[in-house]
Each structure stands twice: as C-alpha cells, then as structure tokens.
# Entry
Amino acid sequence: MALMGIDKAQPAHWLKDNQGALPSIIAVIGVTLFWVVGAIGGIRFLADASSPMAMLTGLYIGLAAVAVSIIIATLAVNDLTRRYARARNRRQR
# Structure
C-alpha cells in the first residue's frame, strides 16, 4: 500500500504531532454531541414536566448548560485556530 501513497501509520503520526490539540478537538466534538442530543430530546424532557416549577428549573439548568457549552466551544475553536495559524506561519517562513 505504501507504493500507492497510502500510509497506514498516518493517523498515529498525526496524533503524535498534534497531541496538544486533542483536548480542544474532544471539547468541540462533545459540544456538538450536546447540541445534537439537546435538539433531539431536550424539548421532550421539558414537555413531560410535572409542574411549572419543575419546568422553570429545567429551563434554568438548560440555559446554564447552553451558556457553558458556548463558552467551551468558543475557547476550543480559538485554541485550534491559534494552533493552525501558528503552524501555518512556521511553514511559510
């Protein structure tokens, strides 16, 4: 396969070179999964609330979770952008 330009060790090599970016990548994937799961099943949870106070509490918890997820996604994307720009600037010099 190496003759055709396909290198099986490439993912392991990429992971070794970009080990510092792994937490940011995991954070972005986690926030994406949070939003997908929330869009699919989050409204159903609030619709099944037994009382208005339970619904209000669920809305406040959901609001806090959304705010925290936006902060985490912003920090992770900022970190990945900074790492990519730094690596790109090094290659251009």
Remarks:
- The chain has one domain: 23-92.
- The helical segments are 10-17, 22-47, 52-92.
